[in-house]
Amino acid sequence: MAGDDLIPIFGVCLGLQSMALAFGATIHRLNVVKHGQISRIYHDDNELYEGVGDVHAVRYHSLHVMLDGSKDLECLASADDGKENGLVVMALKHNIRPFWAVQYHPESVRTSGGGEDVLRNFWRLAQNWTASRHRQVRPWDADVEVTIGKPWPNLQRLSHTSITPHLTVATHVLEHIKLTIPDICEAIGVASEDSDFVLLDSVAQPGRFSIIGCLDQSSTRIAYQLDEHDVVKVTRHGRTTAEQFGSQDIWTWLADFMRPRRAAGGEESIPFWGGLVGYMSYEVGVANLGAVTPHRTPPLASPKHSDINLVYVDRSIVMDAMTGKVYLQTLREHDHSWLEALAVLLEFRSFSPGSQRSHAPRAKPASQMKVSVLLPDKDTYTSRIRRAQEYLFAGDSYELCLTAPSRISVNNSSGNGRLSSWDLYKTLRRRNPAPHAAYLRLNSSILVSSSPERFLSYSRPHGTVCQLRPIKGTVRKGPSVTRAVAEEALVGSPKEVAENLMIVDLIRHDLHGVVGDNVVVKQFCGIEEYETVWQLVSVIEGQAASENDHYEMGWEVLRRSLPPGSMTGAPKKRSVEILHTLEDEPRGIYSGVFGYWDVGGGGDWAVTIRTCFKYDARDQRQDSHQSGPDLHDEWMLGAGGAITALSDPEAEWEEMMVKVESVLQAFQDVRT
């Protein structure tokens, strides 16, 4: 690079290492890897560091630079790792060319003092260099974008026109009702397992609203599988058709589906007026990344769940746990008679003595139900942890969320009916109450979840606020494990904080790319209490500038943020590719998301963890209460953990088993 092709360059992390290799330095492995670790950076207060002061910076690297007598490069800053790694180069400059670089990450949320100030100094140095050579600065135009890409943030609107609401929400409010969510579900027929049902259930804080879809034959079901490319299956009035979306993708097709269904007139405090409810698989997000992941098929015995499985809910019930109010809602025209009939039914159930159903599941003799569990092989899992760490030591990733499936077989040798998935959900709900629980019985898939983790929520426009709540760090509860003990074990652990920090930085990157500059970390590594565990939770929020805010803003953030970073590791694309080599089969429903997209433009999606699911064709459902020999169900349950360079394989295995047991115990309880 010389003459007119020479331009100022600022490198970060690998950028520093690339510059070092190009000009005679060498690259070596650190003795102790620094992923998500904060170090003090020592500098001489010149060049990049003029007027910067103290710097404490986040490091994400397992390799480091040794100048080895390079005459072209000069060290501007370093970190002192003591006995671990000694002095480590943290910043370089080229002595002749306008090249500068830092090894740490100036953009990290936990970098203090060496971020924006250093970038401003680079810009000053670059401008001075450009002016001294009488360079003409070109305007940013389409030709520049072809060469170096679009400016940031790159907001690709699905819709370029304002969307006028087409529907009106009709609402009937019930106050002082004496019914629980299970009571309401049973009042409207959830126990009949030959029909679809959707429940998004906030059983614990910080959850607040529980949502029940009131489905019938006219409710539109949408199913899509990645290997069917441009075909989506739509079921209306019991009739399924295959619709092609051609040059569009499934995200655009779904946006087109929702556009004429935009609504207004509902209670503003209620986040759901109606809309799409269901789940998306992990692989749906992977497909958006452009990651190199050769096709894998599930085991022959595993039926194929849809990758996107949604239903359009135009009649719904929403309970506000804070106020106790119940909202009956419809988007259908001239539907007041349904609202009145439902209100009468629920009020009768509420105020009639003995009409409420028991929250306990129907017991079956232990001799009838036999539960067998096939757990992941411990030796295989721990060996894969060590393989994952080799990738980390080599600099291919900072963190890898390694997972493995468990299989739960339920047999009823007496033939007196199968295990009720609704009973299973009620048992899990009671044992492990969670802010993002769910019971989805949709098409041929049944999902039972007690997820503690919100992936993404977004409020209605205008002023759309997007919130993500990644969980990284888990401690099993016990009599002696108080909040103070859990805080010491989690917040006091460099490993646990580093795990969380890496995902927080990844999520900030995803969110900045859509909404722009206004992204803040509302909570970093806070301790939250759940029924069986303490967890380390961070909260990140972003809001687009008013000119970019629109009805599909949240949908665009969802599309560009999947799969959840807490289920991949960082950096996301490369981590997904590595995990593909370490795991035997597609994850499917597990570690994807479930939730809703509201007709008012808001949405809320949880990470599919602490969740079991099974394939249950309609003909199987219809036979579920009939007698017959050896009725059999097979449920899947995924679990895993974030592997870092500091991970202990034995401890990681134990953490995974804590997560498995939080769901597995429900199978033992429901059968006895």
Automatic annotation (TrEMBL):
Keywords, sorted A to Z: Folate biosynthesis, Glutamine amidotransferase, Transferase
Domain of life per record: Eukaryota
Pfam families according to UniProt: Anth_synt_I_N (PF04715), Chorismate_bind (PF00425), GATase (PF00117)
InterPro entries tied to this protein: ADC_synthase, Anth_synth_I-like, Anth_synth_I_N, Chorismate_C, Class_I_gatase-like, GATASE, PabB_fungal, TrpG/PapA_dom
Stored PROSITE patterns: GATASE_TYPE_1 (PS51273)
Pathway(s) it belongs to: Cofactor biosynthesis; tetrahydrofolate biosynthesis; 4-aminobenzoate from chorismate: step 1/2
Name of the protein: aminodeoxychorismate synthase
Organism of provenance: Somion occarium
Reaction(s) catalysed (UniProt annotation): chorismate + L-glutamine = 4-amino-4-deoxychorismate + L-glutamate
EC number of the protein: 2.6.1.85
